[in-house]
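Supplementary Methods. Inverse-folding protocol.

Structures were first reduced to a discrete structure-token string of length 231. This string, shown here, constituted the complete conditioning input.
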């Protein structure tokens, strides 16, 4: 699934430039230039993350942030605030208001993309609860995983990959997204290394000749199916 972003920015040229870059980075973007309209839209159809400008006509970004945090349905909605002000004071106020991260204008679109990815990654429940999907079971705290009754022998990276997949079944991830989620963006790795790790993960989870739950999506990446079909 492509993450859906709501971009709330009244400066049309900036909104257009950001939309272009965010879409190019693989996000679906809806842009709104007015605070009150943005609030309505979020309630009507909550996005995966809101990129929120501080200075808006009508309701300010900070006020929107506070209102979203007060509502149970939007309490945990990831928010990245944008502002022209660089004062430490405002930064703190923004984070106090409940923003997950904060960008001071001018910033590079690439940096915004990186921050958005990091916030989205943190937003996914990464608790220590056991994960179950079909015949798979994974215990994050104990670092153990099973397929049916068979305990899987997994290296650290394969374990993280499996955990990432089990928490998000059926979703298609690009190699870049998997690199980002499993290794972190500081890792200087080629997208091709993902293929190597997927191959190892497949070898481990399908060792007894079971159907392969990992689907290769041509020209895109990989997805994990809860109901693998035997081939
Ligand atoms: Ca503005």
């Amino acid at each position: 699934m492509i993450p859906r972003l709501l971009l709330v920015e009244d400066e049309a040229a900036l909104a257009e430039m950001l939309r272009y870059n965010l879409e190019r980075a693989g996000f679906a973007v809806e842009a709104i230039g007015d605070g009150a309209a943005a609030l309505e839209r979020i309630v009507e159809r909550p996005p995966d993350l809101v990129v929120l400008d501080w200075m808006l006509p009508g309701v300010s970004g900070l006020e929107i942030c506070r209102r979203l945090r007060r509502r149970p349905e939007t309490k945990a909605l990831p928010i990245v605030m944008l502002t022209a002000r660089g004062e430490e004071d405002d930064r703190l106020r923004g984070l106090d208001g409940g923003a997950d991260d904060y960008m001071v204008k001018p910033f590079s679109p690439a940096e915004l993309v990186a921050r958005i990815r990091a916030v989205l990654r943190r937003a996914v429940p990464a608790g220590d609860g056991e994960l179950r999907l079909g015949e798979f079971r994974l215990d994050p705290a104990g670092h153990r995983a099973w397929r049916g009754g068979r305990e899987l022998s997994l290296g650290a990276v394969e374990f993280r990959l499996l955990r990432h997949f089990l928490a998000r079944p059926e979703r298609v991830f690009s190699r870049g997204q998997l690199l980002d989620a499993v290794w972190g963006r500081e890792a200087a790795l080629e997208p091709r290394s993902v293929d190597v790790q997927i191959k190892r993960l497949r070898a481990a989870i399908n060792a007894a000749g079971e159907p392969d739950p990992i689907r290769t999506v041509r020209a895109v990446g990989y997805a994990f199916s809860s109901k693998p079909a035997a081939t």
